[in-house]
Amino acid sequence: MQRISRLLYPNSTRSVPSVLPAAVLTLTIAFAVIALPAPQQPTPNGVTAGQDSPWLKWINEDVAYIVRSDERATFLKLASDEEREKFIEQFWLRRDPTPGTAANEMKEEHYRRIASANQRFRTGRGLAGWKTDRGRIYITYGPPDQIESHAATTGKAASHLWHYKFISGVGNDVLIEFVDTKGTGDFAMTTDPSAPLPR
Fold this sequence. Notes:
By secondary structure, the chain is an alpha+beta fold. Helix 6 runs antiparallel to helix 7. The chain is built from seven helices and four strands. The radius of gyration is 19 Å and the shape is globular. A hairpin with a 3-residue loop joins strand 2 and strand 3.
């Protein structure tokens, strides 16, 4: 436990995220989500690449969108399964909104979101729902408060506009638009809703 804490927090100071102006929230959230780490394929210390490993699945799929970069780096440095098990236990304990109770609501909600994203957002070409833009936003921020759906019309692709009343660390009234530019049911997040359709 001390080794994991020492690796995670070598310096005890933490930076506090700055507050974003309300006028740029939509664009900021779009760029922030684009900048979210795409699921990488790092290999934990002592785990063979390509090996069917629960450690690889956990770091590269299960928590890909919520693990901090310092946590990822620490996890990859761990040398034994026992350390990795302890790390995962501590990872969820740090996020438990009701410590001391049997249930960890954050962990349960996270895995519920993954299952829901896989069911709702799987693409026609077989991409798992959690890997899509809508899946990533859904897993990271939860279901939107409101969804506007627009069918495709001449010269305009089908789109979904997700509205969040509030996202912690981002702000109020956040809008995220997803557009199906190819007409295949693969909705991608867009930062410019007025952009012309590709020909």
